[in-house]
Amino acid sequence: MDHFLYKNGTLHAEDVAIPDIAASVGTPFYVYSTATLTRHYRLFTEALSPLPHLVCFAIKSLSNVAVLKTLGNLGAGMDVVSGGEYLRAKAAGVPGDRIVFSGVGKTRAEMQLALTGGIRQFNVESEPEMRALSEVATSLGVTAPVTVRVNPDVDARTHEKIATGKKENKFGIPIARASEVYAEAARLPGLRVVGIDVHIGSQLTELEPFEQAYLKVADLTRRLRSEGHTITRLDLGGGLGIPYTRSNEAPPLPTDYGALIKRTVGDLGCEIEIEPGRLISGNAGLLVASVIYVKNGEGRDFLILDAAMNDLVRPSMYGAHHDIVPVAEPAVASPTQEFDVVGPVCETGDTFARGRDLPLVAEGDLLAFRSAGAYGAVMASEYNTRPLIPEVLVHGDHFAVIRARPTFDEILNRDTIPPWL
């Protein structure tokens, strides 16, 4: 469910008409719904109750500080994978004891940043990283709480670029080696083992891979406890998928996911941490663009938009589908036509959809890409010297620009000319 509905023939974000935002900020732009973000976060907290738990939003899916503050004010923790994301979480007012630091390549500088600023735990992904963290923590005279991310060799049955739980993936340590790695963690100064971490991938549309992984984590918890380790937290990662089409097929609900967690690891007396990103932010956002031209080609017709692959890279990078709808509601049984929906970047890869059946539109009409809140703005670039597009947050009948479109002067002034030129 989201809060982007047609009212009186016009697509609205909550109670704000999309054309009103377009008139104010220009196109293209991203718009997010506070009500949808709030609802989706609360679905997870309700699904895990009454287990002790913390829902840590995966910042990598949508990192705007206003969005993070919206969720942080509800009690959300944050899952960060870089020093920059850590600083975004802090800027949003999220305390360090609700921030989890994940990622395979944490630098010593990032470790120091988190240890001095406050951190709930590091999800350690390798022995070299664990040793480096020990050195940094010891040099600061502090103790770093850690989990070790285990790789359970479970096929998440998702896109190969976002599968993270198979043995050939770069993430975590083989679960078969967990005992020796935890033994080393217990010996190293400056570290305190608090739990186990696992994350098998993103955009999972069935529960069975989660169940396979979590049952392995449950067995590992019992084994590590028998070996003398204190395991009080289980970080189970994120990855629950969202429906990118309006078909009848839908991924499992957070309630089903919560029931699975309770069934597999709920009897271990551990605090449960999960790191959802896409399911909280994905359907909470739209990308809105204008039609520049309707071009008739040989054997196909094109809608050329003012949005491009640099604004939304998912279709080019993953072959991803986004529903595309006109902002002006089409009449019932209105005629449609097949279009290739493309952007203005000088690459054939700058294509959002091929042969998409859409209502007839004209130059200047507004189109909305649904389910664009996750991995949209965060993956955008200034390719072709196209400015990053505005981000807008809606709350009821109010909206605010939460990231402005930079001017060309601002973009050019970041470049410097060396003295010999």
UniProtKB/TrEMBL annotation:
Residues 29-373 form the Orn/DAP/Arg decarboxylase 2 C-terminal domain. Its cofactor is pyridoxal 5'-phosphate. SUPFAM superfamilies: Alanine racemase C-terminal domain-like, PLP-binding barrel. Keywords: Amino-acid biosynthesis, Decarboxylase, Lyase, Lysine biosynthesis, Pyridoxal phosphate. The keyword Nucleus does not apply. Belongs to the Orn/Lys/Arg decarboxylase class-II family. LysA subfamily. Homodimer. Specifically catalyzes the decarboxylation of meso-diaminopimelate (meso-DAP) to L-lysine. This is Diaminopimelate decarboxylase. It comes from Rhodobacter calidifons. The gene is lysA.
